[in-house]
Model the fold of this input.
Amino acid sequence: MRRLSDLPEDTPARIRALRTPPLLRRRLLALGVRPGAEVRVVRRAPLGDPMEIAVGDTLIAIRHAEAAGVELEE
Amino acid sequence: MGCPECHGTVATAPRTDGIRVVTVGNPNTGKTTLINALAGSDLKVGNWPGTTVDRLEAQLRLSGGTVRLVDLPGAYSLNPTTPEEALAARELLAHPPDVVVNVVDAGNLERNLHLTLELAELGLPMVVALNLMDEAEAKGYTLDPAALERALGVPVVPLVASRGRGTDELLAALERARVPGLRLRYPGELDRAAARLADRIDHPAARWIALALLAGEEVPIELDGELLERARRLRAELERVGIDPYLEIENARYVRAHELAQTALLGSEPRLTLTDRVDRWVLHPLLGGPIFLLGMLLAFRFTFLFSTPWVDFIGAVQEVLAGWIAALPLPPLVASFFADGLVGGVGTVISFAPVLFFLYVALAFLETSGFLARAAFIADKMMLLAGLPGRAFIPLILGFGCNVPAVYSTRILTGRFDRLRVGLAIPFMSCSARLVVFTLFAAVFFPERAAWVVFGLYLLGMVVGLFTAWGLGRAAGQPASSGLMELPPYRLPTMQVVLKQAWARTRSFLEGAGGPILLAVLFVWLLLNLPPGDLEGSLYARVAGWLAPLFAPLGITDWRLLSALIPGFVAKEVVVGTLAVSYLGAEPTAALGFVQGLGQILATFWASLLTTLGAVPALFGLPQLAPPPPDAPTALQAALRASVAPAAALAYMVYVLLYTPCVATVTALKNEFGRFWAAVAVVYELILAWVLAWGVYRLALLWLGG
Done:
């Protein structure tokens, strides 16, 4: 299973499912991180965590542990 | 006005006299800038009643009549994940406005239109303000507002609010506001269930409410139990056939939002934006850290370089007033009541104003510019150690300047529990008032290692604060808070709004905390002066006597040291002044002539103004890292050295660092988190301060000897 947390930088991928706790899922959906959307890792923070992702025109900071629940299509 | 019936099934256009208009939109869509552009000097800034959420409001006088404009807090969705979103949803459902102005970021259509589709289900007349057209253009997007207008069935007005472009058109469009003609369809079963449920709801937003109930959301208006029960059954049925209502609803909205965005998009040639270019440096793997620290330092120095001259000015005015009072033929006790009690108390209250004002300006600038989100991004991993989100870094750092605005700045955090945890950690951040005490004691007892002792105290405070926040999280069994947030595009804040917001927040503090601070100063004055005569025979010294057994294990036995902790509740720097009075006796206030005093006030005002202007280049100069030399009289230093041992002095410093925050901070905690938590904070800190001071004393005894 491919996870968003393992996605290399600047490699677009499509989201398959959100396997996260309910509140985090709601927050992700509110920001446009949803199954079917294309996502790209822009960069990782200087200390390695969190990472910056781009979904559509939105830039989002997300922690490694949180991104591990975002499943990507193969 | 045309005849409303002619419009047939379309909802009638509202009259524009006396109507209530609300602006709704995602965070970072320039809503604040827009409402400022519309309202100009009529803009009023305050709080939503019973909350700590900023509220912007204005009365607009238009050709069609008066319009009341209210800005709702930014929301990504009406299914709330933050207190601000909950407030926006509650306002829209419980007090439906006459017109909804949906502010949409033209450069981020898809995500913004998701909210538009939710709003469309509320059954309220609507206008879409397509803001930030300039940014969309810079991103390489060519948009067709008319196509969006046709698809949504409501007026769509393109704007660049920051330059006032399109605002007249938006106001004119209020008259054409209508209930969106667009009806979003959901997958078969879900749509049927929603329609069945909506039929039983007597509310213009019936469809939205029905969908929210099916998604398992709490709806912020009263609904009868039978309806809720029916919704629960319908949801269970849907789940049985493998439908996740929440996900399906969100998905249908996003698919439609995507289609709508495509309809409105004529062309797109992606370009590198300003945000991309700036972030390449600000979030650089190596340079990101140093740039972040530099930015924080700059914000910090801005606040204190600009506010210090005015705090000094207020002090100078106080002295002149005291001099004038001394010139009056009054009995000494009455003169002291006016000069030290009243003037001193009011002065203490007012001297918070410059610090708060400039800190709020710096904070608003950091937040609206987009820098704050980047700072949180960089600090996130450090904050994760304490189980806090990256944003918690800002209030904690501000705490080193002054705890009061730091407590109010916890509002930048999204969760209520995170706000409380950080709020309770803040008083341990050693504010600049406590530095006055530390530098005096460190210079007297540890002249060789003064800087290290002060640094160690700061570090101790920070560790205790982070431990408090972490411990509270663990005790409540909360998982580590989320680091999820939007990194908004870089933008220049509207100065007028920043200044207005800063002033409104400062004023609200003065109104709320002025009374308690004044009372605390008067109370301390009473202790010091009753019964009149010798200080050693006063209530003040007597209270110290009662406290003595409590502090004996810390090695602090001198009544003058103990009693100075009481006025420390008013403001921590007062500890030094009170020590000087009790060790060396009060210096009589010299009488001052009226003209002479006026001259002094004018001269200090001029000097403060010059220092403020001079602070602009100093802002970028090298920071002074060494603590300023203590200006306390050497007589006090000698007296202190004679009265207490170094180990006990260290315990005293630790106690001053950690014990109850000043009355202004306690009031701030009460305003933000309620009476209960303010009381918890005071008791917790008093106990913790004693325990840690005792520990430090025992360790120091081993190290330094008695």
Remarks:
- The mean pLDDT of chain A is 94.
- Chain A touches chain B through 34 residues (CB under 8 Å).
- Residues 18 and 25 of chain A are 7 Å apart (CA to CA).
- Chain A is about 20% helix and 40% strand.
